[in-house]
Task: structure prediction
Amino acid sequence: MQTVQRYLINNLVIAYISGYHGRNSKVYDRRLTLHRGVSNPISFTFKNEDQKAQDITSKTYELNVVDTESKMSVITKELNNLNTVSATSLTIASDGSSTGTTATASVTNTNVTGSFKVGFFLGGDHTISGPVEITNVNSTNAAGTSTILTLKFDQQTIPSETVDVTAGPKGSANCTITEGDLLPLDAGFYNFAVREVKSDGSREVTYSDTGYAAAGTIEVLDSAYPEFVASTSVTNFTVTADSKSLAKLSGYKPARPGINNNKALHSIAVYTIGFSGDFKVQATMVATPTQPKEWFDVTMDNESSATNTFSNSTGVTTYNFTGVYHNVRFTWENNTGNTGRVDKILYRQ
Result:
């Protein structure tokens, strides 16, 4: 038996939002990889030069992915700040301590949206200035109606008051690059950068390492997952004297027999405008057909006849058919006096 391991891990980016003073230098930042055909979540941590996560509660950041050849932005995403808890009427008990020590806070559970976790930080109104880190979480009674938080104040003395706060992972944000975002991009290398969006609409740099580099590298890969393949569009129909076809006939389209199974599924969407008449799908087992006799009619699934009749049809009609063929083509003919048409056909195999 083969044992296969898969890793549920995050693409993690560290962005620096303060100057570098020679401490804790980071000399290597790994390349991000994005895979076409699936969504790609990316996590971000914002730190200072001492590798300490920073409070970004009130800040807005955006990710830009840039084509290295055209220098144009191909993806822009606003990052989601991960503030997961809101609490009203959180009462902080002061002990008169100085900066860098701890105090407790009591909050009634009915005033909490979300759940507190150790390592989260608080930010809110009144005199709290972050980061205020949650170092312990305890229920105060068996009924679990209220919660006691142990808080560490790094940047101020401990206030004594009741405040409304939000809590979340310190300095953390995320976004998701979707399958659709990557659809127009070729596989290859791109640059990315994260900018702070200021209140006046201006942008401020964040750094990808402690050496003041602003850009990181993304590699877009297309080998791991199947990708969306656009349907074959058929829009040209010519008047024909082909004895096997109706009055209007398309060119033939490859049916990809080499990659289909013995009972291959084909789908078509027929777009009509005021059309009354007959429509057929025809197929051949010949790689390069030259004679009308090489073609035969194909009966759609769940239909009793190869001839599909339309009556003053405007819209989209879908059909499925099965079989392994070298090529297919499409043919149609108006009823007497009808001036409608088959506008186009989308074909997937």
